[in-house]
């Protein structure tokens, strides 16, 4: 190979410098491109996570609405059942009022036949049945009491008068009855 002249050496130097500049420019371009790619990936990641969060929030809202709808439906069902029970109770009470029965216990007993007291086995007199204030006083004593005013009745005779419960039992036991 022949020796190079000054001009050729200068051209070679310029060529090497240009090549080095190109390599530096290429590296800078690669760095900028890598930074742009990283920024795009970050934006894509943020968008994906934002969409996922929005979707989760939408699912939460949807489930909350479904739960609320189920709760409302359950409450409506309970209210309807309660209204139906009340309606049946009113119908039942109306039916009993129309048929003349005053208490469920009296529907199994005929008014003209005495039954036995469930507590002591003694027959219940028809006069005792059906009224709360009936007593076992003889009719003579009742007549004499009816003639007196309530102020004239001595306390001892009032306390000695037995008081009969609805079941026919003596609520206020007396030590002695009228003779």
Report on this structure.
Residues 47-94 have a biased composition (Basic and acidic residues). Residues 157-179 have a biased composition (Polar residues). The chain is an all-alpha fold and 179 residues long. It folds into two domains: 1-99; 124-169, no CATH class. Helix content is 61%, strand content 0%. It has three helices and no strands. The protein has helices at residues 6-99, 139-147, 155-160. It is rod-shaped. It starts with 5 loop residues before the first helix and ends in a 19-residue tail after the last helix.
For this entry, give a set of tags.
179 residues, mainly alpha, 3 helices, 0% strand
- The strand count comes to 0
Q: How many helix segments?
A: 3
Oligomer: single chain
First-last Cα distance:
166 Å
Q: Which word captures the global form?
A: rod-shaped
What value does the Rg take, in angstroms? 54 Å
Q: Outline the biggest β-sheet.
A: none
Q: Overall mean pLDDT score?
A: 75
Strand content: under 5%
Counted up, domains total: 2
What is the percent of helical residues?
55-70%
Low-confidence stretches: none
Mind sketching the topology for me?
Blueprint: H1 6-99, H2 139-147, H3 155-160
Short synopsis of the structure:
The protein is mainly α. 61% of the residues lie in helices and 0% in strands. It starts with 5 loop residues before the first helix and ends in a 19-residue tail after the last helix.
């Amino acid at each position: 190979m022949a020796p190079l002249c000054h001009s050729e050496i200068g051209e070679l130097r310029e060529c090497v410098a240009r090549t080095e500049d190109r390599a530096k420019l290429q590296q800078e371009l690669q760095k900028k491109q890598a930074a742009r790619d990283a920024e795009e990936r970050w934006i894509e990641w943020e968008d994906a996570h934002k969409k996922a969060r929005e979707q989760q929030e939408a699912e939460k809202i949807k489930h909350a609405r479904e739960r609320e709808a189920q709760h409302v439906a359950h409450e409506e069902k309970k209210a309807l059942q309660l209204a139906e029970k009340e309606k049946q109770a009113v119908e039942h009470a109306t039916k009993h009022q129309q048929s003349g029965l005053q208490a469920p216990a009296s529907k199994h007993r005929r008014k003209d036949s005495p039954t036995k007291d469930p507590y002591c086995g003694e027959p219940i007199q028809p006069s005792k049945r059906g009224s709360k204030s009936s007593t076992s006083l003889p009719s003579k004593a009742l007549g004499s009491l009816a003639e007196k005013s309530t102020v004239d009745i001595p306390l001892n005779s009032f306390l000695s008068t037995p008081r009969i419960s609805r079941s026919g039992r003596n609520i206020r036991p007396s030590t002695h009855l009228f003779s």
